[in-house]
Amino acid sequence: MSATPATSREWHLVARPQGWPKPEDFALREAPVAEPAEGQILVRNIHLSVDPYMRGRMNDVKSYIPPFQLDQPMDGGAVGEVVASRAEGFAPGDHVLHGLGWREYAVVDAARAAKVDPDVAPLSAYLGVLGMPGMTAYAGLLEVASFKEGDVVFVSGAAGAVGSLVGQIAKLKGAARVIGSAGSDEKVKVLLDEYGFDAAFNYKKGPVAEQLKEAAPDGIDVYFDNVGGEHLEAALGSLNLKGRVTICGMIAQYNATEPTPGPRNMVNILAKRLRVQGMIVSDHEALRPQFVREVGGWIRSGELTYRETVVHGIEHVGDAFLGLLRGENTGKMIVTLGD
User: Fold this and answer.
1) Closest to 136 in 3D by CA, of 280, 261, 272
2) Which of these, 204, 206, 213, 241, lies nearest to 154 by C-alpha position?
3) Residues contacting residue 144 through CB under 8 Å, at least 6 positions apart
4) Facing residues of 10 across strands?
5) In this predicted model, what pLDDT tens digit does every residue of 184-199 receive, in sequence order?
6) SS3 of 165, please?
7) Is residue 234 within 8 Å of residue 245, measured between CB atoms?
8) C-alpha distances in angstroms, 80 versus 95, 202, 218, 252, 337?
9) In 3-state terms, what secondary structure has residue 169?
10) Using CA of residue 39, residue 44, residue 49, residue 54, what is the dihedral sign?
11) What is the pLDDT of residues 33-90, one digit of tens each?
């Protein structure tokens, strides 16, 4: 366990991005490390998470989560080691999951921290497969999309932290066929060879609707949407009667500067009696014990596999986030600051 320094580096949002974020929209600054007050712990962060939803928080708009404030530290998922505690149940040396990432050290309210066990899974897994992305995949498929055995499932953004798990969980739960789209031939190969998808295609190589029809000639029953745009339009065309759509993310339009057109074929929602539902993972906390038990078991048995794209150093958190938006990750994008 390292000694606590007097200062900690943290990332601030210094300008609200117009379109694609630029490096100059962020600044790495030093701040004094405070002592924890009663009910708080001081955490040395080891792994930080960058996630697509963070792009929306850079806009000054009301949403399900408050926007980042200018010239203030940004936040996000992190796992780290407790170095000082004034909270019952937490001691130096414990490892915790919390929400004050984008910095080296964080003073965290103990009520907002959860102990994690590095002997059960690598610490970084609590930011990915056993964390928010894993829970999103599990709840979004099983609860929001009402998945049932024998369904044909299509996942966009299928090589990402969420999509890769959706496809595998669908297979483990008895899907008849699982199809994924990704943005490179290399990612398509990963979907087929590592994650066990039945079919996959590179959406940059042709119209999504045509490639989806070829991969699912008898249509699909569930669409898990991480992308929006052309993918959603294609899925509405391929969904079978009473199909279900989980709207998890729309990364294709996060950086748009003009209003993006909606699918031109929304009449399918009426004609096919489709159910289209948005999801926010925090609405599904009641599923967490079942999620940890079932997904943890699949990881231990080797039935479920996952990848991480790891970037090293606090200096590169901004680079990792921009790379995530460009699709440079396979699996969960993690920034590691140490052991």
Assistant:
1) 280
2) 213
3) 244, 246, 277, 279, 284
4) 29, 103
5) 999 999 999 999 999 9
6) helix
7) no
8) 6, 37, 47, 32, 10
9) helix
10) positive
11) 999 999 999 999 999 999 999 999 999 988 888 999 999 999 999 999 999 999 999 9
